[in-house]
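Same chain as my last thread, 259 residues:
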Amino acid sequence: MTAPIQINPAGRLPWLDERPLQKRIGLIILATDHTTEVDFRRMVASDSIGVYVNRIHYANPVTLENLLKMQPSLTQGAALILPDEELDVVMYSCTSASVVIGDRNIEEAIHAAKPGAAVVTPTAASAKALKTLGARRISVLTPYTIETSRPMADYFIRLGFAIDRFTCLGLSDDREMARIAPDEIAAFANQALAPQSDALFISCTAVRAAQVASRIEAESGRPVVTSNLATAWACLRLCGDAQARPELGQLMTRPYGEG
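reply #2:
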């Protein structure tokens, strides 16, 4: 029989950092989302910026009614990201639902749980991104049906943008939207961009458009904003990260205060 191993206390407690990482970004994403976490891991997370995720219930198909049903889940969704601890930014990752629920309503719901956090939505971030890039005339590409696309067109028109061309792909399941191949996204993007537009906006956080934004820019000669590229840019800049990363697209070379 071996003698029990003696376990000795260290003699003092360790010194603790104020935070494990300097900045904290909370993501509220749909239960069905395949893309946002991957994009934020690639574009945002670092040794100084932590990305913390909570998923909320969502049921396909993508309809105005189903999108609106997520609104009551937003406060608890934010509260369960590092409970009782402050977040620097909270991002709600659904573009079409942000249109239907409304940027202000989303901000109020999240602030009920995380009052000190900056709130980012794909719609508000994309509008700010387009203005930062100097775009006033835009083309829009969405994966949605016409029914879901129309409120988005109205959203950008209300903000003063002129829409030269609006193209939708007619999908109603966000899991299928995530399966659109990057080459297909680039092909549809080039078709969707009107000659007179200053920039192209590609909607939907499920779509892997951020992967090919710089490629589309190189092919078209005009800036491209995608939902996830815009929210990544906004979250980084709100966390004080001003690093220019042109390989991700023109937007990632710009400060947040422009436009």
